[in-house]
Design goal:
This protein is mainly α. It has 17 helices and 2 strands. Helix 10 crosses helix 13 and helix 12 runs antiparallel to helix 13. Pfam families: AA_permease_2 (PF13520).
Length: 517
C-alpha cells in the first residue's frame, strides 16, 4: 500500500546522486606525533608537549644508550667536584662570606638537594635529554620551556667559560712552580684584567670539544679516570692542608654577617650545577627511570661533604682575603712550604678542572640537541655523527664559550652562571607542584617525598639566593631573557613540533594469510 503524504522528489534520469556534504570537525590544535601511530592534539591556548611524545621522540632521537648508574654518578661528580671547589671557593670566601663559606656551601647543598629531589621525579617520568627544559615542556608549556632552556644554555655556556678561566689560572701557577715560567699577561688574561686574551682558557675548550666529538662512550671512560684523580687530589688537600691549618684564620668567622653567608651560597651555587648534567644524559642512560634519581641525589650528597671539608681547610690555611683569584688551591698551598706535594695538588687541580669542563660542555650540547629536535631552534644543528655525537652543536657552543673565556673576567662570568641556573631550578620545583595538581594519576617511578613541603622549600631557597645577586647581574639576565622571547617569537613559535605537525605514517597492516609475497 502506498504511503500517504508528500511524495519524495524524483531524481532526473541520468544524473548522479549528489553526495551529502561532510561536516568538518572543529580544529582543536596542531597534531603532534607520539610514535604510537596516531596524533596527539595540543591545546590551542597553552602548548604542552605530552610526556609520551617527548619519550617517543627520545627513543628515535639518534643518541645511544650506553651509560649505567656508575657512569651517571661519575659524570655528575665529575661536573660538580672540581669546577666549583677549584674555582669559586676563593672568590666566594674573599668577597662574600669569609671563613663562613663552609656554611654557604652547606646552605647551597641543602637547597640543591631539595631541587635534586624534584628533578628526580621529573627525570624518571620524562627520561629524555633536555633536563629542566623538557620537564617544563611536559608540564607548564612551550614558551616557559623555551625560556628555561634558554637560561640553562646561559648557565652551561658561561659555566664552561668560568671553569676554563680557572683552569688557565691553575696551569699558570703550575708552570711558575715547576719551571719558573710566567706567561705574558697579554695572552693569559682578559682585557678587563690587563691582558688581551686568555689563550690557555681558549685552548682547553678546544681540546674538550675534540674529546666530545669522539662520542659519549669515550667521554664516560675519560671522565671515570679523571674522577678518581680528582678525589685523590681532594683527599690530599684535606690531609696535607689540614696539618697546616691555623685556627686564627677562621676569626672572625662571619666577617660579612648572615647576609654574607646567603650571598656566598648564591655564588657557591655554581659549584652544584653538575646534577643538571646528569639529567641531560637521560637518553644515553640504559635504565633512566631507575638510575637517574640515584645519580642525581648521590652527586649532590657527595659534593656537599667534599665542599665543606675543602673550604674549611683552604680558609684555615690562608687568610680568606688572599684567596680572591681563579686558583684558590694554589694560593692556599703557597701559604706554607708544601714542597712537591703542592705541585702534585696543582697538577691534580688542573686535571679536575679539565674533567669539570668536559662534563659542562657535554651537558650544554645535549640540552641544545633537545631544543633543536623540538624545532624551537634549527633542527639541522641536532644531526649526530656515526658515534652518536651532535657535532655541529658541540663545535658551535665550544666557540661561544671560548670567546667568553678569552675576553670576560671570572667575577662577571660566575654570577651569570648562577642566575640562569636558579631560574631553571625554581621552574622545576614549581613544575612538580603543578603536575601533582593537574595530573595526579600519572605514573611516577620516583616520587619527591613530603610534597608540597620539599618543592616549596626548594622554590623559596632559589628565590632567596637569587635576591642576593648584584643588580647588574639582573640587568644582564633581563637582556638575555628578552633576547630569548624574541628568538621564540621570530623562529620557534612558528616552527616548533606543536606548530608544524609532522607526518606520521600508520603501521603497515599484516598481509592476509595465503596472499602472495
Amino acid at each position: 500500500m502506498a504511503r500517504r503524504g508528500r511524495a519524495a522528489p524524483r531524481r532526473p534520469a541520468g544524473r548522479a546522486h549528489a553526495p551529502r556534504p561532510v561536516r568538518r570537525a572543529r580544529r582543536r590544535g596542531p597534531a603532534v606525533p607520539h610514535g604510537w601511530g596516531g596524533p596527539v592534539r595540543a591545546p590551542e591556548r597553552r602548548r604542552v608537549l605530552p610526556a609520551e611524545a617527548a619519550v617517543a621522540a627520545g627513543e628515535r632521537g639518534g643518541l645511544h644508550r650506553r651509560l649505567g648508574r656508575r657512569d651517571l654518578t661519575a659524570m655528575g661528580v665529575a661536573t660538580i667536584v672540581g669546577s666549583g671547589i677549584f674555582v669559586m671557593t676563593g672568590v666566594a670566601a674573599a668577597t662574600k662570606a669569609g671563613p663562613a663559606i663552609t656554611l654557604s656551601f652547606l646552605l647551597a647543598g641543602v637547597i640543591c638537594l631539595l631541587v635534586a629531589l624534584c628533578y628526580s621525579e621529573l627525570a624518571a617520568m620524562v627520561p629524555v635529554s633536555g633536563s629542566a627544559y623538557t620537564y617544563t615542556y611536559a608540564t607548564v608549556g612551550e614558551l616557559p620551556a623555551f625560556l628555561v632552556g634558554w637560561n640553562l644554555l646561559l648557565e652551561l655556556v658561561v659555566a664552561g667559560a668560568a671553569v676554563s678561566i680557572g683552569w688557565s689560572g691553575t696551569v699558570r701557577a703550575l708552570l711558575d712552580s715547576l719551571f719558573g715560567v710566567t706567561l705574558p699577561t697579554a695572552i693569559s688574561a682578559a682585557p678587563q684584567a690587563g691582558g688581551v686574551v686568555d689563550l690557555p682558557a681558549v685552548l682547553v675548550i678546544a681540546a674538550v670539544v675534540a674529546v666530545l666529538v669522539g662520542g659519549v662512550r669515550l667521554t664516560a671512560q675519560v671522565t671515570t679516570v679523571l674522577v678518581l684523580v680528582t678525589l685523590g687530589v681532594l683527599a690530599t688537600v684535606v690531609v696535607v692542608g689540614g696539618a697546616h691549618v691555623h685556627p686564627g684564620n677562621w676569626t672572625p668567622f662571619t666577617p660579612f654577617g648572615a647576609h654574607g653567608i646567603v650571598s656566598g651560597a648564591a655564588l657557591a651555587f655554581f659549584a652544584f650545577l653538575g646534577f643538571d648534567v646528569v639529567a641531560t644524559s637521560a637518553e644515553e642512560s640504559r635504565r633512566p627511570r631507575r638510575d637517574l634519581p640515584f645519580a642525581i641525589i648521590a652527586t649532590v650528597g657527595i659534593a656537599t661533604v667534599l665542599y665543606v671539608l675543602v673550604a674549611a681547610v683552604l680558609t684555615g690555611v690562608a687568610p680568606y682575603a688572599s684567596l680572591n683569584d681563579p686558583a684558590p688551591v694554589a694560593t692556599a698551598f703557597k701559604a706554607f712550604d708544601a714542597g712537591w706535594i703542592g705541585d702534585v695538588v696543582l697538577a691534580g687541580s688542573a686535571v679536575a678542572l679539565t674533567k669539570g669542563l668536559l662534563m659542562i660542555v657535554y651537558g650544554q650540547s645535549r640540552l641544545v640537541f633537545a631544543i633543536c629536535r623540538d624545532r624551537l631552534l634549527p633542527p639541522a644543528l641536532a644531526r649526530t655523527t656515526r658515534t652518536g655525537a651532535p657535532l655541529r652543536i658541540t663545535v658551535l657552543l665550544g666557540v661561544v664559550a671560548a670567546l667568553i673565556a678569552g675576553f670576560v673576567p671570572i667575577d662577571i662570568v660566575a654570577e651569570l652562571v648562577n642566575i640562569g641556573g636558579l631560574f631553571a631550578f625554581a621552574v622545576v620545583s614549581a613544575g612538580v607542584l603543578l603536575l601533582r595538581v593537574v595530573d595526579p594519576g600519572r605514573e611516577r617511578p620516583f616520587r619527591t617525598p613530603f610534597v608540597p613541603v620539599v618543592p616549596v622549600l626548594a622554590l623559596a631557597g632559589c628565590v632567596l639566593l637569587a635576591t642576593t645577586l648584584a643588580g647588574l647581574t639582573w640587568l644582564r639576565f633581563a637582556v638575555w631573557l628578552v633576547a630569548g622571547v624574541v628568538v621564540y617569537a621570530a623562529y620557534g613559535r612558528r616552527r616548533s613540533r606543536l606548530a608544524v605537525p609532522a607526518v606520521v605514517r600508520p603501521p603497515a597492516e599484516p598481509a592476509p594469510a595465503g596472499s602472495e609475497a
